Amino acid sequence: MERHTGINLDMKKKKLVEIKNVSYAKNGQKVLLDVNFNIYKCDFIAMIGPNGGGKTTLLKLMLGLLKPTSGSLRIFDETPGKASQKIGYVPQNVHINRSFPITVLDVVLMGKLEPRTKWWQRKRDQDRREAMQALEIMHVADCAGKMIGQLSGGQRQRVFIARALITTPELLLLDEPTASLDTKGKTDFFNILKELNQKISILMVSHDLFIVSSYVKSVACVNKRLHYHDQAEITGDMLESMYSCTVEDVCPVELVAHGLPQRVLKKHDEHEHHD
Amino acid sequence: MIEALQFEFMQHAFLAGLLASIICGIMGTLVVINRIVFLSGGIAHAAYGGIGLSFYFGWPYMAGAIGFSTVTALIMATVTLKAKHRTDTLIGVMWAVGMATGILLLDLTPGYNVDLMSYLFGSILTVAISDIWLMLAMCGLICCLMLYFYQDLIAISYDQEFARIRGVPTTLLYIMLILLLAVTIVLLIQIVGLILVIALLTIPPFIMERHSRSLAKMIIGSIILSTLFTICGLWLAYTYNLTSGASIIMVGGVVFFLFLGVEKALFRFNKIS
Lengths: 275, 273
Prior knowledge:
The complex is a heterodimer of chains A (about 280) and B (about 270).
Chain A: H1 2-12, E1 15-26, E2 29-40, E3 44-48, H2 55-63, E4 70-75, H3 80-83, E5 87-90, H4 104-109, H5 124-137, H6 153-165, E6 171-175, H7 183-196, E7 201-205, H8 209-215, E8 218-223, E9 225-229, H9 236-243, H10 247-250, H11 252-257
Parallel strand pairs in A: 3-7, 3-8, 5-6, 6-7
Antiparallel strand pairs in A: 1-2, 1-4, 8-9
Helix pairs in contact in A: 5-6
Chain B: H1 8-33, H2 37-57, H3 61-82, H4 87-108, H5 116-121, H6 129-148, H7 150-158, H8 160-165, H9 170-192, H10 194-209, H11 215-240, H12 244-272
Helix pairs in contact in B: 1-6, 1-9, 1-10, 1-11, 2-3, 2-4, 2-9, 2-10, 3-4, 3-9, 6-9, 9-10, 10-11, 10-12, 11-12
């Protein structure tokens, strides 16, 4: 019954990303194996998995920064490189080039970069207003005039998210966006994401299992292969197959406190895929 | 100082110094923020092979040197793009082999052997007017490209991945940058010597880096600093009859260490108070 309505909803939704049988190997080592995965409009997906499981690789494949060894990717019905301007990307490493002579505002304005419009064609004032708005959404507007190197890791992460926001993306790819945020920052940030999610689809890599289960709509587990779970619950089985350890090993307090053991555990092979 | 300017060779030296400062201010800033100082050193020293090649085959100096260093620069750029972790080793090897090639070819060239010192420290006091025109043309080209690609260059220097996602042709721009660098270095070696090229490329941008609010300001500051170094160095060389290139570098070096010292002292002072 539940699954039936789910499919009906899917039919109405616009498909943004279609990944079919994608494999990726680096130096002969298989990083991703036969991945099938779709992202629809207004999805809010958390991507979890162990280090080296291929999460970042999958994001980079979608962005066209890497080419798949086999299989096909369609992003907004185009090949990955072409459509990457519709994607807002927040990289995992926000600590690059800290002594670079650039202000926070200018970093955000980088999001307005389009090679086809040269600097004399730019609407500077409008761009600047949008950049300030994005910084306000991320609660770092007061840092606009500071040098990027002066900010703390968490503030810089917010700035990078603001930069992704002013690209007016239809899809937001976030690679561990909460890694440098404090607990309060995380809650704030997820509330912001929830709001953005009304218009923008979000795919987020995260190790914050606790927050994941309370905000996202679905979960994708990536460990060479990808398993998609239509619900936001994180089950013991998922953890076991992902991290090859038990629920208690991952985080005995958080998960048990959220009543995980009472949930009905689904197994990967029984699960209906998204498409 | 003023009376020195009545000599034509001093006027030429000042003009050459000024143009070199502008070129180095722009290219040096790009070198420093892209962290390719070692690569520039590699190009400069490998250019020696080109000089040797020119003398051995009797080609004009520019043709051999620009040809040779463009090729080495392209190889270095490819390695940087393809196998980042191997870059410094390979540049180090090409650096040494380029220089050795140059020296061996000069050994094998019959007759008069050029003074190696003049390529290390240059001979800014004997700059020909044709070289000044050439530098002016190069300066114009670099300024135009810099203006046209300003935003793109910031983006690829700061966050290459993001620039690529926004559709900036990062590989092409990077290769353009390296080629411009190769030509710049060869052009300036003849006039100010390869050691002064590296010094002018790195010292002013390094001083400016943490005190500029934008790339443009860093470039302008670097140009002003290099001009100051060049003028002071030339004045010292003229007054005390010293080697011009070495004097300019000495001025830059002293300012650099003074600057570091003052910065440290201020930092301490701020911490205490």
